[in-house]
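Hi there,

I know you've been waiting on this one. I reran it after we fixed the sequence typo, so this is the corrected version. Both the input and the resulting structure follow.
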Amino acid sequence: MASIPSRQVEARGADTSVGELLSAVTSDVQTLFRQEVELAKTEVKQEATKAGKAAGMYGGAGFAGYMVLLFLSLAAVLGLANVMDGGWAALIVTAVWAVVAAVLYQRGRTRMRTVDPKPVQTVETLKENAQWARHPTR
């Protein structure tokens, strides 16, 4: 559970009024809320970074596939056209690049599935805080 800072109200002991106590509780709740928001921001930022890296792999795979497809395919088609019909040579090269594209897509998809957009730690601490608010003496 997130820690709530102690207040000067506690130092006064029995001389505190209800208004001072409510003011201290309100201040503590506001501090707790700010801390939870910061935790949520941090968690979301971490997951966004993971998603960005996975998306970068998709983009890199697409660009690399394009460049390879453009230059090596042309070379392969021309090379195979020396031993068979040009149409068959182009079809074979296309099938090879389809397999490469499928593998790259699958790897990117696998990494993207590890991204968890829900701020798990924040949800847990909010549950703990709610339980504490219901039963502060436990």
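Quick highlight: The chain has a mean pLDDT of 82.

Best,
R. S.
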